[in-house]
Amino acid sequence: MRKTLFVLLLFTGFLVQAQIGGKSAFPFLNLATSPRVAGAAGGIIANVEPDAVFGMYNPALLTEQMHGRMSFSFANMVNDINMGEAMYTHYVEGVGTFLIGMKYFNYGDFKLTNSQAQVLGSFTASDYMAQVGYGYTLNEKISFGASLKFINSSYESYSSWGMAADLGATYQIPERRFAMSMLFKNIGYQFNPFGDVRDPMPFEIQYSISNKFEHLPFRWMISLENLQKWDLTYNDPNAQNTDPITGETVTTTPGFGNMFMRHVVIGGELSPSDNFNIQLGYNFRRSMEMKPATRQSTAGFTFGIGLKIAKFRLNYANTYLHLSNRIHHIGLTTSLDRWKKKSTPPNDI
What we know:
This protein is mainly beta. It is built from five helices and 16 strands. The strands form two sheets. A 14-stranded antiparallel beta barrel has the order 1-2-3-4-5-6-7-8-9-12-13-14-15-16. The protein has a two-stranded antiparallel sheet with strand order 10-11.
């Protein structure tokens, strides 16, 4: 059973953050569930379009236009492994915009065995996070926000608790349709570790810029992730070759360009109308780490689409992690104001 749990934890870190995973507690915090976020490869922290979902990933994006929004997202990974999130935003005049949300990651059912491999029953494993966020708009150019997260991981009889905070700031130039954001994610502490060793939190610093063309309904986004650590490379056995003369193992060391691009995420969103949008994204590090050594692949590419239907906006995204796995994301967003009689929201969902 302990071996099964070890494999589970290892798989979690691998799936969420590829090769830099497995080095911190609660790695699921950095996994995008929302299809509009996942469709742009997660690099949306400078996207100032009024989608309340963005506030879960950067509280500085919470604005008055997001008042009364509700969103539900679900993603299926492998077999019965899935994740989901839900959130609601509320604006208080003169105070700011508040968000409450939750996220879960369910790993499915496992067989409970003893050291002789006798099946004794079954158990489940899940991660949970409850979030409270706040965003304040200082003026038309500057906004900032903060989120507080309460985290729990439960694997069979093992449990861990923690708390983390996100701090973000956004600067805009409205007449040029330009925005940039800085985000400090998962500043926190693991209060109750699984064993005797307390793991660090998945702390991350992100910086992003975005711009929407004047005569084209397209917003491009460039994000830099994991700025708190320069070298994101790892000991890749596929990068080792044998010298034909000496027979010694030669390891290929990534250069400056390779190391830099592992921090880069690019994304874009095309919005021909208020009722339809398309997202595209590419994560360079994910592509470098997950592509097979013997062939080309589209690992790291993401795609998403959004469609307004009556009082709802339906979003779908497909994220391509590896040849063996695609993740399908689906989300539903609505505004409570749209359900009130004789009331029309100032901004569409």
